[in-house]
Design goal:
The complex is a heterodimer.
Chain A lengths: L4 H29 L11 E4 L2 E5 L6 E5 L3 H8 L7 E6 L2 E7 L2 E10 L3 H4 L4 E4 L4 H5 L4 E5 H8 L9 E4 L2 E9 L13 E4 L16 E6 L6 H13 L13 E3 L5 H9 L8 H34 L1 H9 L4 H37 L11 H28 L2 H6 L1
Parallel strand pairs in A: 6-11, 8-10
Antiparallel strand pairs in A: 1-12, 2-3, 2-13, 4-12, 5-6, 7-10, 8-11, 9-10
Chain B lengths: L1 E11 L4 E12 L4 E5 L6 H8 L7 E6 L2 E2 L5 H11 E4 L11 H10 L5 H14 L15 H13 L5 E5 L7 H18 L2 E5 L3 H5 L3 E6 L2 E7 L4
Parallel strand pairs in B: 3-8, 3-9, 6-7, 7-8
Antiparallel strand pairs in B: 1-2, 1-4, 4-5, 9-10
Helix pairs in contact in B: 3-4, 3-5, 4-5, 5-6
Classes of the chains: A alpha+beta, B alpha/beta.
């Protein structure tokens, strides 16, 4: 390996870059779709971000699509019997406010008290709001630690102090450790109880401003919840007016991945979204890895052809075909292992840098070891195939021909 | 030591059949220094390759040290070559990426020899050919004569009974060729190593015990100059 520095460099570069990119991609995927802080129960939670009313009669193609109203949620989702808990929160909105002498742009959410039970936010100070808060019509808020540091100053306790949001003075009753904005269902800078949202309570339409999370008692309950909800949805009367007469309501509770990705990439309703995505991702990864693999095969073949005279010499002086094949196997495996180690070190360094860079506040990327190991094993296999096959062919070559070069 | 009996070698392509060696029978005694001469393309190298078990005859029988070489596996053949035969090639065939010492150690890599012992034997072999001061050099840093001396060191490091030399002086000037010849003669007389040498140089051939001439794949004459 040391002898052919350029070849070694090209091989190592190909192996380590491919592995690194795969490791980073899966790490980002996990970051977005994996069940991480504070959504530790994500794997037994179902989500609904939107509903869709459609009118397809008489060649019409009209539809109304959006988050749900409070009345809809209270009537049709909160009343479901199979889920352990149902929580709702508004889609995040931004607001400008002034604190500590500077302008702050904050994301805020309205939620119900159950939100704090389904999520597992870590309270650095204070506590969440509860039903009594809502019944007593208290103007309170829970904020995250960055907002506390920005608004009240670093190291200052915020409990009992007032933060102004949308012209409303809110008493801070809790400070949570923040989570990255990629956790769309739960991430915000400021959380307020839903009774402070003035518009929606009067809204009698199905569409409104809220998204839903339904926690199952166990993963096995997920299909039962979906079935119960589908049954309810079928019987919901659809309000009609002069302009819009929907006959169909498309509404369902889905696992996180489907509820987030389905609408964006693969808009289909047959429930195979995740399978399709994984197929797509696996095909992509394979294609992605095949490029350096083919490259490696090429390099190895030309390198071994170049070494045919060496093979001839070694055979003349007593190396058997098997010994030579082993020599190539060891060379290739060593190379791949070194490439894998480089990839891990580089990925680790990148992730460490990214997590503290604040490009995504609260980012908590980590290496997915399962994928890293699979990718590593695959590259060893590619390395073996690309090195061993030509070496085996060469080792079978008559010595006389090999010596001629 | 070495016996060839009715050796035939035919090269076949789709359309042509070439008879490279025709019914060759030859005995080489232990300790003999034999030279083979003949015009280009007469089959000298083919004959030498068959003697060295680098190539198989189409028909005929090879016996080395009373062992008939037939039906050997790749592994057994490799081991046999490794223990019994040393090769010297016209174009040296050194591995340019390895330093001189590693090149000389090569045959010992395929035996159960400790690395310390390998080093010791290779150093001794290099001393024998007068190159102990070039051990750390790479082949590309050496002259043709020096390269051939490294190749001789490699051929003798495993103490084989038989050395096959394919035009060992062919690429060298006469002074260098003379030096190489002296080393081979020394090996033959001092160590009683059997040597078979292909050469184009009548003068070199006359320094060996016996000369056989090859023409169109057949043995045509044999001159005995000395006895082993």
């Amino acid at each position: 390996m040391r002898r052919r520095k350029f070849f070694t460099f090209i091989s190592l570069f190909g192996i380590s870059m491919t592995l690194m990119i795969l490791i980073l991609l899966t790490s980002f995927y996990e970051h977005i779709f994996g069940g991480k802080y504070p959504e530790v129960y994500r794997d037994r939670t179902l989500f609904a971000t939107m509903i869709e009313e459609a009118d397809t009669s008489n060649g019409n193609n009209a539809m109304r699509r959006g988050p749900m109203s409070l009345s809809y949620i209270n009537k049709y989702v909160k009343t479901l019997e199979t889920p352990e808990k149902v929580a709702f929160s508004s889609s995040p909105n931004t607001v400008n406010t002034y604190g500590n002498g500077k302008k702050l742009k904050l994301f805020f959410k309205y939620t119900d008290p159950v939100f704090w039970e389904i999520t597992q936010f870590e309270f650095l100070e204070g506590k969440p709001f509860n039903q009594q808060t809502i019944d007593a019509n208290e103007a309170v808020a829970v904020i995250n630690n960055d907002t506390r540091d920005d608004y009240f100053g670093k190291g200052v306790s915020a409990i009992g102090k007032t933060i102004e949001i949308n012209g409303q003075d809110l008493r801070v009753i809790g400070v949570v450790r923040g989570c990255p904005i990629t956790r769309m269902m739960v991430s915000a800078d400021v959380y307020m109880p839903y009774h402070l949202q003035k518009r929606d309570p009067a809204n009698t339409q199905l569409n409104g401003e809220y998204m839903v999370m339904a926690l199952a008692k166990s993963k096995a309950d997920l299909p039962r919840i979906q079935a119960e909800y589908n049954d309810v949805v079928k019987r919901i009367p659809l309000p009609k007016d002069d302009f819009f007469k929907p006959q169909v309501l498309n509404a369902s509770l889905k696992p996180y991945f489907e509820s987030m990705a389905a609408d964006t990439f693969f808009n289909n309703s047959d429930g195979s979204t995740r399978a399709r995505f994984y197929l797509f991702a696996a095909a992509f990864a394979l294609l992605f890895m095949s490029l350096p693999a083919i490259n490696l095969v090429n390099i190895n073949i030309s390198r071994i052809l170049e070494r045919s005279s060496e093979i001839g010499i070694r055979k003349a002086f007593g190396a058997s075909s098997r010994t030579l094949v082993w020599q190539f196997i060891i060379e290739n495996v060593m190379l791949t292992i070194i490439g894998g180690i480089i990839a891990l070190v580089l990925s680790g360094a990148f992730i460490a840098w990214f997590n503290q860079s604040d490009l995504i506040p609260y980012a908590d990327l980590a290496i997915n070891w399962k994928v890293a190991i699979i990718a590593f094993v695959l590259s060893v296999v590619f390395g073996l195939m690309s090195g061993v096959f030509p070496a085996w062919r060469m080792s079978k070559l008559p010595v006389v021909d090999a010596l001629k070069g | 030591m070495l016996s060839l009996s009715q050796i035939e070698k035919i090269y076949r392509t789709d359309t042509v059949e070439t008879l490279a060696l025709n019914n060759i029978s030859l005995e080489v005694a232990k300790g003999e220094f034999l030279s083979i001469m003949g015009p280009s393309g007469c089959g000298k190298s083919t004959l030498l390759n068959i003697m060295g078990l680098l190539d198989e005859p189409t028909s005929g029988q090879i016996t080395i040290e009373n062992q008939v070489i037939h039906g050997y596996s790749d592994k057994a053949l490799s081991q046999f070559r490794n223990e019994k035969i040393g090769f010297i090639f016209q174009s040296y065939h050194l591995i340019n990426d390895l330093p001189v010492l590693d090149n000389v150690e090569l045959p010992l890599l395929y035996r159960k020899v400790s690395s310390k012992e390998r080093r010791k034997l290779a150093t001794e072999a290099l001393e024998k050919v007068g190159l102990s001061n070039r051990m750390k050099h790479y082949p590309t840093q050496l002259s043709g004569g020096q390269k051939q001396r490294v190749a001789i060191a490699r051929a003798i490091v495993g103490r084989p009974d038989l050395i096959l030399a394919d035009e060992p002086t062919g690429n060298l000037d006469s002074a260098m060729g003379h030096e190489i010849m002296e080393i081979l003669e020394q090996l033959n007389t001092a160590d009683r190593t059997t040597i078979v040498m292909v050469t184009h140089d009548e003068g070199m051939a006359k320094r060996t015990h016996r000369l056989v001439r090859l023409f169109d794949g057949a043995l045509v004459s044999s001159n005995q100059f000395y006895t082993a």
